[in-house]
Write a structure and sequence with these properties.
The protein has 3 domains: 90 residues, Phosphorylase Kinase, domain 1 (2-Layer Sandwich), CATH 3.30.200.20; 153 residues, Transferase(Phosphotransferase), domain 1 (Orthogonal Bundle); 43 residues. The protein is 43% helix and 14% strand. The strands form 2 sheets. Strands 1-2-3-5-4 form a 5-stranded antiparallel β-sheet, with helices on one face. Strands 6-7-8 form a 3-stranded antiparallel β-sheet. Helix 8 runs antiparallel to helix 9. 36% of the residues are buried.
């Protein structure tokens, strides 16, 4: 078991392996989450047979009423989630160990681990495109519910083992007023500048994190100087999202989509112009060969 600030479901075993275990089908784990809580059990629900994750408040913050309120608010926000790219909270309750949340189990790797384990995956433009579009779809859904994710990072975004589908596994907005919740170095690197200054994040802050995630997926780092390694149209999208001032970024996912579509049109136009130029050159070469064919034939005979 690795404990490095994310949910990693290479350990414990995959869903298929867990299903082979005798009843009660439950395994204790100790997985540190990037800000919201600690996962303590992967277990199978008797009601529907689905695998779930039991999450509890972090020990270091469990004594803070404000944190516990945020923990409860997280459940309220996530219980009605109905999007395939966002993990949903299923139940909440309290027992002898304190409050808990039951969340959908995601069998896969965090983006951070995925990039390290599959370094060539995002070198293919179609894989970058699929990742970016799923993430945009998830953000559009979350924002349509008048909330922000608040803590997007390579530790809160997972790719499933089966088909590399994107899953956002945490909604950190309720915890934004608790600095300790986002104290890890990696989480800080993906917070928008205004969040790092103590302000509450909004949709524009999520879009800043989106730009950072695209950069990270394509380069394995967070250096904006490497944006040239990101394929279009996502290079243009990330460049707009990574502007320091919120008012200069896209103001919504819809605005970001317009930038993507505009860049796609420009790329298609450029390719058409390039193709036309190549055809003109070929026609010119063919015409020249036809006009000067006797001279060409004579020169050819001198050498062959």
């Amino acid at each position: 078991m690795e404990d490095n600030g994310t949910i990693i479901f290479n350990a414990p075993e995959s869903q298929a392996e867990l299903q082979q275990e005798p009843q009660p089908q439950q395994r204790g784990v100790d997985i540190a989450l990037p800000g919201l809580g600690t996962a303590t059990q992967v277990q199978k629900r008797l009601s529907d047979g689905k695998w779930t994750l039991l999450k509890r408040p972090k020990d270091a913050l469990a004594g803070q009423p404000k944190y516990l309120d945020a923990f409860a608010e997280e459940y309220r926000l996530c219980v009605e989630i109905g999007h395939p790219n966002v993990a949903r909270c299923l139940e909440q309750g309290s027992d002898g160990e304190g409050p808990y949340i039951v969340q959908q189990f995601v069998d896969g790797e965090s983006l951070s681990d995925f990039v390290g384990n599959h370094p060539s995956h995002f070198r293919k433009e179609e894989n970058v495109d699929g990742f970016a579009r799923q993430l945009i779809s998830a953000l559009s859904y979350v924002h349509s519910r008048r909330m922000a994710v608040g803590n997007l990072s390579p530790r809160t975004v997972m790719l499933t083992s089966q088909d590399n589908a994107v899953r956002i596994i945490e909604i950190g907005a309720p915890y934004q007023s608790i600095p300790e919740a986002f104290s890890t170095e990696e989480t800080q690197a993906f917070l928008a500048p205004e969040q790092q200054q103590g302000q509450l994040g909004d949709a524009r802050s999520d879009l800043y994190a989106f730009g950072m995630l695209i950069l990270f997926a394509c380069t394995g780092g967070t250096d904006a100087e490497q944006l040239h390694e990101v394929p279009q149209p996502w290079r243009a999208a990330a460049k707009h999202c990574l502007r320091q001032k919120p008012k200069r970024r896209p103001q919504s996912v819809a605005a970001l989509n317009l930038i993507v579509q505009k860049r796609l049109r420009r790329t298609r136009l450029f390719r058409r112009i390039l193709l036309i130029c190549l055809l003109i050159l070929l026609l010119a070469a063919a015409l020249g060969l036809w006009i000067y064919w006797p001279e060409v034939k004579e020169i050819w005979s001198l050498f062959f």
